[in-house]
Design goal:
There is one protein chain. The protein is mainly alpha-helical. The chain has two domains: about 1-45, no CATH class; about 50-140, Flavocytochrome C3, Chain A, domain 2. It contains three helices and four strands; from the N terminus they run H-E-H-H-E-E-E. The strands form two sheets. A two-stranded antiparallel ribbon has the order 1-4. A two-stranded antiparallel ribbon has the order 2-3. Strand 2 and strand 3 (about 120) form a beta hairpin. The longest helix is centred in the N-terminal third of the chain and has 23 residues, at about 1-25. The radius of gyration is 24 Å and the shape is extended.
């Protein structure tokens, strides 16, 4: 008897979830553009990336202390990141950074956090290989939504 009651309750609950999901999907767009994602209206235009050549640009102040540094220079074809090569490491790997006069990758990029006890390595952690996953270029793009965020000043040690 208990099995039948549990089965009926499970079926009733799943019916409620299905009904709720059907009620929320309509013609109302779910996007920042306020139109269908397939519409060609209000499509953001192309953006121009800002910055000088590597070595000639100034560092950009961080929005807050834990924010990754922003890429202050343009990225050209020589700085590609693919399976065989990471162009960022040509200048920012610790052993090359001083000679190239560029900011070195921090210790966290040379630490393997996948084990219980973090392990410092000689070569940078492959989990940090895709630099542009966290570090972004600057552009002249207009914000899609407003923001009142105010960062705190980041002091370098």
């Amino acid at each position: 008897m208990k099995k039948y009651i549990v089965l009926i309750l499970a079926m009733a609950l799943s019916l409620v979830f299905v009904a709720a999901s059907l009620a929320t999907t309509g013609e109302e767009p779910i996007s920042l553009r306020k139109t269908s994602v397939f519409s060609k209206e209000n499509v953001p235009g192309p953006v121009k990336y800002l910055g000088d050549a590597p070595g000639e640009s100034k560092l950009i102040e961080r929005g807050h202390g834990d924010a990754p540094p922003q890429i202050s220079h343009l990225i050209d074809a020589n700085m590609t990141i693919d399976l065989k090569r990471n162009g960022c490491t040509e200048c920012h790997e610790k052993r090359k950074a001083k000679q190239k006069k560029s900011p070195p990758m921090p210790d966290s990029h040379y630490t393997d956090y996948s084990k219980k006890k973090p392990r410092v390595m000689r070569k940078y952690n492959q989990g940090r290989y895709m630099c542009t996953q966290c570090h972004v270029l600057q552009s002249d793009a207009k914000p899609l939504v407003g923001s009142t965020f105010k960062g705190t000043r980041f002091e370098r040690k």
